[in-house]
Amino acid sequence: MHTETTSSNYQFDLLKVGVSSEGIAHVEINRPSALNAFSTQIWRELAQCFTRFKSDGSVRCVVLSGAGRMFTAGLDLKEAQTGPLGKPHEEGVDVARRGYYHRLYILEFQDAISTIERCDKPVIAVVHGACLGIGIDIISACDIRIATEDAYFMVKEVDIGMAADVGTLQRLPKVVGNDSWVRDACLTARKISSKEALFVGLVSRVLSAKREAMESAFDTASLIASKSPVAIVSTKHLLNYSRDHTVQEGLEYTAAWNALAHNSHDMALAVLSSLKKQKARFPNL
């Protein structure tokens, strides 16, 4: 059974974070009264949390889920009306000057979501109920996606008069690998069932309910956490690098990376344990 303890390093207002003794962190988007809609505070807390995970050697894998009825209803539109996206042109300030700072805001938002991808610890997203708008940006930055039968997905940005701008249009085509389907989903903002998401490869598996999906996620996380942390972070890092580069560039970078990573004691421990048919226990990163 998965048990978690809270840590003073991971105290947030809108995220609930626990870390188990085996190094599995559970991040729960915890704003159920607002259907986990993303305010500026949530995405900034998300960035802080995953930035800390990257340098926390005791964390080996992360499970990301949402509290309440759904994963997330997307962007908090009420806050957006008064925030940088909704502010009217200030009198006397030209478009170029206003646009300069608006761009910085978007870049900060993008960077916050990218911390999930840059965190070398694998991240497993569990989606139940609705996953709208920014929810797609977030799960596209995760490594593994698990859904419930009642889960559904919508790239909603065109319905609020904008193009998705914090990761969906960049990552989703690489996650799914079907350009026609991605354009269909992004241009229509239509509702995508968990069955369709599984068919196109957006998620790896679909479970009957949230409890079963969470159990599946923690089982996978536990298996990942049992491996050499050097091997795991290296694999995620190299997969991300190779996705964005040519095969030859990926091979050359892997050779340079592994020239260092192969010096880990984990390799000898893994080989010896395999020969003895024993379970290896690897030290934290």
TrEMBL record:
Transmembrane segments: none annotated. It is found in: Peroxisome. It comes from Coemansia guatemalensis. Keywords: Acetylation, Fatty acid metabolism, Isomerase, Lipid metabolism, Peroxisome. The keyword NAD does not apply. It comes from the Eukaryota. One of its GO terms (biological process) is fatty acid metabolic process. One of its GO terms (cellular component) is peroxisome. This is ClpP/crotonase. Belongs to the enoyl-CoA hydratase/isomerase family. InterPro entries: ClpP/crotonase-like_dom_sf, Ech1-like, Enoyl-CoA_hydra/iso, Enoyl-CoA_hydra_C. Pathway: Lipid metabolism; fatty acid beta-oxidation. GO terms for molecular function: delta(3,5)-delta(2,4)-dienoyl-CoA isomerase activity.
